[in-house]
Design goal:
398 residues; alpha/beta; Aspartate Aminotransferase, domain 2; seven-stranded mixed sheet; 15 strands; binds pyridoxal-5'-phosphate
C-alpha cells in the first residue's frame, strides 16, 4: 500500500485493507467488503462501532464544550471519575485521566516514586505499553532491545510464580505491576490464588500493588475489572482501551494511601480527561450497565470457549468473558489470521500458535456462532492443505 509506506512511519506492518465504516461488530473496507470484527480495535470498541449512545454523547459534548484543559473542571470528567470510584467499590478511589494505556501505566510509575522508593517488580511476557517508562515495565526483551538503556531497578519475574515474586519484592519495592490475565502474550490466565498472594506480598513489604486492567477492564472478562474474581483489591488500577468506547481515554485510579501521593504539579496532561472522551466513557459505562453486557460477555465467552475447544487442531482455549486465547496444535496462527481476513473475519495472531479474540461485548449469539463456524472451517482448510503438502513431500527441506 503505497500511500501508507509513503506517508506513515514504518512502525506497523503495512495493512492490506482500508476500513471505512462500521456498525456494531461489522466493518466495511474501501471495496465494500464486510468483515465480522472479533478484534474490536484490539479489545477497545467495547460496544462495537458507532453505538448510538456513544455517538449521541460525543455529538452532544462536541457541540457543547470540546476542550478546556485541566485548569478547569467540567461535568463529564467529574461524573466519570465518580462512576469509576463507584465501580471500584472504594470510596477513597481518585482517578487521573490520560489518553492511553501506556500513559496510565506511566502515571502509576510516577505515583510509585512518590513513596520514596524506586524499585519495581513486573512480570515476564507482560505488556504495559511502549513509552520509555511503560516499555521499561513491559516484560518483553525483544521490544526493549533497541531502546536500551531503559529505567533502572525494574525486575521481571516469571508470570504466575509466587515464589519468584516473594524473592523479588522487599522493603525497597515501590510497586508491583501485573496484568490480571496476560493479554498480548496470548491470553494467559494465572494460577488460582496468584493475585491474592501478590496482595499479601505487597502488604507485607508496604509496596503498591498495581493491576494493569487496560485490556481486562470495562467488563471484558465479565467483571468491571479483570482482577475482581480474586476478591482482593489492588492499590492502583490502570485502564484504557474499552473505557472510551473507541475514543482515546485512559485512567489511573489510586485507592487508599496511594490515592494521596500525588500533589499539584507532580503530573499532568493537556488532553487527559477531555470532555468528549469522558462523555464517551460515561456513555460506555451507562450502556454496559443498561444492556447487561457484563453478563453477555460471560455467557457468550463461555459458549465460544466450549465450542472452540471441540474443534480439531485446537490444543487449548483460555480466557475469561470475551477475552479469549485459542492455542493451536500447529504454529499456524498467522496463516489463519490472513485466511480469516479473506473470509471476512478480523482476529489476531498473538503468538505463532495463539489466536486472540476480543470482540465487542454486545455481540449476538448468532455472531458468536458465525465466528465459530468460520474458525472451524479455516482450521479445517489449513490442516487439509498442510497434510496434503506433507504427504506430497513438499513440506520437507532440501
Ligand atoms: N497494558 C496492557 C495490558 C495492554 O494490553 C496495552 C495495549 O495493548 C497497554 C497497556 C498499552 O496501551 P496503549 O496501547 O493504549 O498505550
Amino acid at each position: 500500500m503505497k500511500r501508507w509506506t509513503g506517508a506513515l512511519q514504518n512502525t506497523y506492518k503495512t495493512p492490506t485493507i482500508v476500513l471505512v465504516s462500521g456498525k456494531g461488530s461489522l466493518v466495511k473496507d474501501s471495496a465494500g467488503k464486510a468483515y465480522l470484527d472479533f478484534l474490536a480495535g484490539i479489545a477497545t470498541n467495547i460496544l462495537g462501532h458507532a453505538h448510538p449512545a456513544v455517538v449521541k454523547a460525543i455529538n452532544k459534548q462536541s457541540s457543547t464544550l470540546g476542550h478546556v484543559s485541566n485548569f478547569y473542571a467540567h461535568p463529564s470528567a467529574l461524573a466519570l471519575a465518580g462512576k469509576l470510584r463507584e465501580l471500584t467499590g472504594d470510596k477513597t478511589a481518585r482517578t487521573f485521566f490520560c489518553n492511553s494505556g501506556a500513559e496510565a501505566n506511566e502515571a502509576a510509575l510516577k505515583l510509585s516514586r512518590k513513596t520514596g522508593r524506586s524499585k519495581i517488580v513486573a512480570t515476564q511476557g507482560s505488556f504495559h505499553g511502549r513509552t520509555m517508562g511503560s516499555l521499561s515495565l513491559t516484560g518483553q526483551p525483544n521490544k526493549q532491545r533497541a531502546f536500551l538503556p531503559l529505567l533502572p531497578n525494574i525486575k521481571h519475574v516469571p508470570y504466575g510464580d509466587v515464589k519468584a515474586m516473594k524473592r523479588a519484592v522487599n522493603r525497597r519495592t515501590a510497586m508491583v505491576i501485573v496484568e490480571p490475565i496476560l493479554g498480548e502474550a496470548g491470553v494467559v490466565v494465572p494460577p488460582v490464588g496468584y493475585l491474592e498472594s501478590l496482595r499479601e506480598i505487597c502488604d507485607h513489604h508496604g509496596a503498591i500493588l498495581v493491576f494493569d486492567c487496560v485490556q481486562t477492564g470495562m467488563g471484558r472478562t465479565g467483571d468491571w475489572f479483570g482482577y475482581e474474581y480474586s476478591g482482593i483489591r489492588p492499590d492502583v488500577i490502570t485502564l484504557a482501551k474499552g473505557l472510551g468506547g473507541g475514543l482515546p481515554l485512559g485512567a489511573m485510579i489510586a485507592m487508599g494511601r496511594a490515592a494521596q501521593l500525588f500533589e499539584p504539579g507532580d503530573h499532568g496532561t493537556t488532553f487527559g480527561g477531555n470532555p468528549i472522551a469522558t462523555a464517551a466513557g460515561l456513555a460506555v459505562i451507562e450502556t454496559l450497565t443498561k444492556e447487561k453486557l457484563l453478563a453477555n460477555s460471560e455467557v457468550l465467552g463461555s459458549f465460544i470457549m466450549e465450542e472452540i475447544a471441540l474443534i480439531p487442531g485446537v490444543a487449548e482455549v483460555r480466557g475469561a468473558g470475551l477475552l479469549i486465547g485459542i492455542e493451536l496444535k500447529e504454529p499456524v496462527a498467522d496463516e489463519i489470521t490472513k485466511l480469516a481476513l479473506v473470509q471476512g473475519l478480523l482476529i489476531n495472531a498473538a503468538t505463532d500458535r495463539t489466536i486472540r479474540i476480543a470482540p465487542a461485548l454486545n455481540i449476538s449469539k448468532k455472531q458468536a456462532e458465525k465466528f465459530i463456524s468460520i474458525f472451524a472451517s479455516l482450521l479445517n482448510t489449513i490442516s487439509t492443505k498442510n497434510s496434503d503438502v506433507k504427504s506430497s513431500g513438499k513440506g520437507h527441506n532440501g
